[in-house]
Amino acid sequence: MSNTQSNDFTEWYIQTITKAELMSYSPVRGSIIFRPDGYELWEHIQERFNLYLKSEGIRNAYFPMLIPRNFFMKEADHIEGFAPELPWVTEVGDEKLEEPLALRPTSETMIGSAFSDWINSYRDLPYEINQWANVFRWEKKTLPFMRTSEFLWQEGHTAHADEADARRRTLHVLDEYEKVAEEFLSIPVYKGQKTPSERFAGAMDTYSIEAMMKDGKAVQAGTSHYMGTKFAEAFDITYLTKENQHTHAFTTSWGISTRLLGALIMTHGDDKGLVFPPTVAPTQIVLMPVGPWKKNPAIMEKLTGLYEGFKAAGFRVRLDDSDNSPGYKFNEWELKGACLRIECGPRDLENGHAMVKARDLDDKVAVPFEELAGYVKEQLDSMPKRLLDAARARNKANEHFDIDTLADLKAHIETCKKENRPTGFVLVGWDGTEETEAKIKEETGFTTRNIPFEAPMQKTVDIVSGKPAKYTLWIARAY
Amino acid sequence: MSNTQSNDFTEWYIQTITKAELMSYSPVRGSIIFRPDGYELWEHIQERFNLYLKSEGIRNAYFPMLIPRNFFMKEADHIEGFAPELPWVTEVGDEKLEEPLALRPTSETMIGSAFSDWINSYRDLPYEINQWANVFRWEKKTLPFMRTSEFLWQEGHTAHADEADARRRTLHVLDEYEKVAEEFLSIPVYKGQKTPSERFAGAMDTYSIEAMMKDGKAVQAGTSHYMGTKFAEAFDITYLTKENQHTHAFTTSWGISTRLLGALIMTHGDDKGLVFPPTVAPTQIVLMPVGPWKKNPAIMEKLTGLYEGFKAAGFRVRLDDSDNSPGYKFNEWELKGACLRIECGPRDLENGHAMVKARDLDDKVAVPFEELAGYVKEQLDSMPKRLLDAARARNKANEHFDIDTLADLKAHIETCKKENRPTGFVLVGWDGTEETEAKIKEETGFTTRNIPFEAPMQKTVDIVSGKPAKYTLWIARAY
What we know:
Two copies of one chain form a homodimer.
Chain A: H1 9-19, E1 23-25, E2 32-34, H2 36-55, E3 59-60, E4 66-68, H3 69-72, H4 76-82, E5 87-92, E6 95-103, H5 108-118, E7 127-136, E8 150-160, H6 163-184, E9 189-193, E10 205-212, E11 218-228, H7 230-235, E12 238-240, E13 246-248, E14 250-257, H8 259-268, E15 285-289, H9 297-312, E16 317-319, H10 326-335, E17 340-344, H11 346-351, E18 353-358, E19 364-368, H12 369-397, E20 399-400, H13 406-418, E21 425-430, H14 434-444, E22 447-452, E23 471-476
Parallel strand pairs in A: 3-7, 15-16, 15-17, 20-21
Antiparallel strand pairs in A: 1-2, 4-6, 5-6, 7-8, 8-14, 9-10, 9-22, 10-11, 11-14, 12-13, 17-18, 18-19, 21-23, 22-23
Main location (chains A, B): cytoplasm
Subunit structure (chains A, B): Homodimer.
Organism (chains A, B): Enterococcus asini ATCC 700915
């Protein structure tokens, strides 16, 4: 790795995901190719989140990607928010279309129009649908996985008879996103509510989980929106109540995307390359012969037996019997984020053990063959929690509570720059004005992340105006 | 159902899939909404085909949907074939793009360009990738599932060191498509080679599986293409041989799409609605109370127990305890294609049995509760073969071998029209000229389906020219 994390984190990131073959740049501005190891991470996230959907009775569907222009016009805040980033299909073959079609940036409009047809009575509610799809937002600055012109996501859309039920779904999904992040991806997150200026275009309330990367910057890792009746009014989603009244439904939407892959890499990766919890790792176990193994066929015989055993047990396992040197193989599989490396050479075989190295631990351990299956299972079972705890500990060290003024914040940034350490998440008081948010951003590049549900402490004074704080906010630089 | 299959098959089809909520029309010309039951069919096909990919070591990836215009220009036949159907993105926000971007109709160009970067040495070959994606072809005439502007598919793309290996993959996938159709979807297919005029734009050889619908029309249900070195030359996919020679790779591509859903419905459906094999059915078992069940809580207790048992055993099962009448429920679940209906009323409970009705059989059977689990499993296990056999028998009755001239064919069509029966598949002799194909199409609307690998007989004379036949062809009207 020519760039380390501490030298230039972004360079480290791009080089690592490129060399590890998670992605390739494509000829289309800001769009990337998800190579097999990269795409597989997303497939595992899909499997995991589909379990939630299934358990909640929320079914998958698929809606057209192209959205007629007049659909966007129906909800004013929505079009205002998305207009600058929308790619438009204006021609087919040689012919101009009568009405341009947008590539969906999100599907509230298309699904709202469908809900209007499908929902008639209180008996149809709640109506809850999910879609796995590609979406398009032509962003000015792009970074693989984190912010790309085309990305993959799930978008859930629900309609409810009353506000309470809609709000319940909004927050229930947010809780599930927290579980996906923490339990499945070992990424600790900060759960809270977005400020009005950071809401989804057209939402009444937006909630998010925010994750802290190793360089201290934030990633908005999932959002859930309560729409009130705004989209129901724009798209005429009404239902007949028990009392025979036509009433607008209350809607929600929520999404996680392939930017979780970026968060995963920037949370766990190190200077050797990728680190993945086994829940999502494309390679959980890699077996390799070491020493003069070609002279001793019993070594490959042993390893092949182990390989078949792990495979039959359902592990994602590879056997690297290439001619590359052990050092080369170590580097390659560390780069690619294999969770466990199992080596066996002539002396190991003689001693009846294999050498096992977990990607996130420093030491190799000699494990007798008869204990290997148990040891591997134990290691893979404990790795997610270990990675989560490590990330949590790092986060804790980069949370700041004693910054009360803009001057404090600037001084903090200066110090961090000098000492080459992350600026992290800063908890500040906020008087609730957009002026404060704008000023913070303008002067420091920090943006408001969210108003935490459980703030570690309450701040009493607005960081800019010095007025009494109405809210306590996390602010940070963000991807 | 106001339209029966024999009255107006297309009307029957559209009404059935609409009422059964498989799809809705969308505001975008020729694009449909895949509603949950429709999308679930596709999810099961994905699961099934992913097993093949996994067993063959072919991994999933994801490539950008937008393709720069210059990419299409590189392979002349390819652009010629797709140009009229391509939607173009020409603007983003308010700005004109320098180069228009096409919505992918297929990804040979994008993936060819990536292969050119990724493939360097004979050690990299074969290089085999699959993508699940949405694709766009702006067709003049559309029909839900069968032919839509946007559809979902998988496209496999592979590169090989030599022709033999590329041809092996092309045909191996075709065999797998046959298995997916016959073993999984209970759709019997005709496997063969496409004539040159029906080849994929840019392919050297195209192979297909063709299915016969209940109305006798054909559906091209899957295709596999051998490209030779044509795309490798256009996109510079070269590798270094063992002997250190730069050489072009041989490529293939192959796909099945959501048109399989159309084939599934038109193969098995009847005047009551959808019929699905349990392999893909969104509802395998539906349980319902009948008679004066509300007065007797033991009935719902029994049914709930059965429901929980089937659910725990992994079946896709519903319990319909709505207030609708039994007649209404029977119709609804027959419309939706539930494989097995299990009824229980007061007398059934007294007699210790449930009444079971398979969607494709005429009679209800009384099955003692203690034998129910075994009976259900047996029915669901045998249903795919039963549906396949029924479809095969119908196909046999609609295959025609005694049509030797265009006049014969026209007479056949007339007779079928008079007797209101399908024109079916007609096996004819072909001299190998495009003139014959054009003439058949012009005069009868029949198109060449494929040159079967195993023709039931060899025809000796071209149906149009009367010259000696070089090939024996299936022709049919087609979707």
